[in-house]
């Protein structure tokens, strides 16, 4: 098939494989909410002691599931979406917390990871594209702060654009979990 494809078609296929948006309709504030099954998958493999902060709560998709599972959750977001405390810039925060669970904006994923592991005394769980494992800056970060677990989804997942389900957007995702008590990375599949 590829031998009869133009270089443009191959580049589009390659971009689609790694989860690039080729339609140019990316949500302006990077609001791609997390579906219940994605959150439930994390809770099947990880338990959290103490309070949880969800700093990119959007409309509460992650927070509501955590609360249903008996967790005490602080919800905030930079944007006001009628859930949690609005106008909180997580990257400027200095308050420590027990745990952080979020689906950060991908354009700021490394900044969020660095800040979250600095602030969380227990665990940090970030839903990220699998290709977060790549990159020189990320390698430097991982050498100092390796995740305890990378839970790779065996099936591609679709997030909710602007908080609403939509067709497309199937991405290779993983929950990256940092644990202050563990310094060696393990990989699991969910």
What can be said about the biggest beta sheet?
7 strands, mixed
| Number of E-state strands | 11
The whole-number mean of residue pLDDT values reads 85
Q: Measure the end-to-end span.
A: 31 Å
Kindly state the percentage of residues in helix.
Answer: 25-40%
Distinct helical segment count: 5
Dominant shape = globular
* Uncertain segments: 12-27
Q: Which sequence of strands runs across the widest sheet?
A: 3-2-4-5-10-6-11
- Which percent range describes the beta-strand content? 15-25%
- Rg value: 17 Å
Q: Give the H and E element order.
A: HEHEHEEHEHEEEEEE
Question: Structural class per helix/strand content?
Answer: alpha/beta
Topology:
Blueprint: H1 7-17, E1 32-33, H2 36-45, E2 52-54, H3 61-68, E3 73-75, E4 99-102, H4 109-119, E5 123-129, H5 136-144, E6 149-152, E7 157-158, E8 160-161, E9 170-171, E10 173-179, E11 186-189
Parallel strand pairs: 2-3, 2-4, 4-5, 6-11
Antiparallel strand pairs: 1-8, 5-10, 6-10, 7-9
Helix pairs in contact: 2-3
Keywords:
two-stranded antiparallel ribbon, 190 residues, 7-stranded mixed β-sheet, alpha/beta, 11 strands, 5 helices
Overview of the structural elements:
There is one protein chain. Helix 2 (36-45) crosses helix 3. The two termini are 31 Å apart. The longest helix is centred in the first third of the chain and has 11 residues, at 7-17. The strands form three sheets. This protein has a seven-stranded mixed sheet with strand order 3-2-4-5-10-6-11, with helices on both faces. It has a two-stranded antiparallel sheet with strand order 1-8. The radius of gyration is 17 Å and the shape is globular. The protein is of the alpha/beta class. Strand 4, helix 4 (109-119) and strand 5 (123-129) form a beta-alpha-beta unit. The chain has five helices and eleven strands, in the order H-E-H-E-H-E-E-H-E-H-E-E-E-E-E-E.
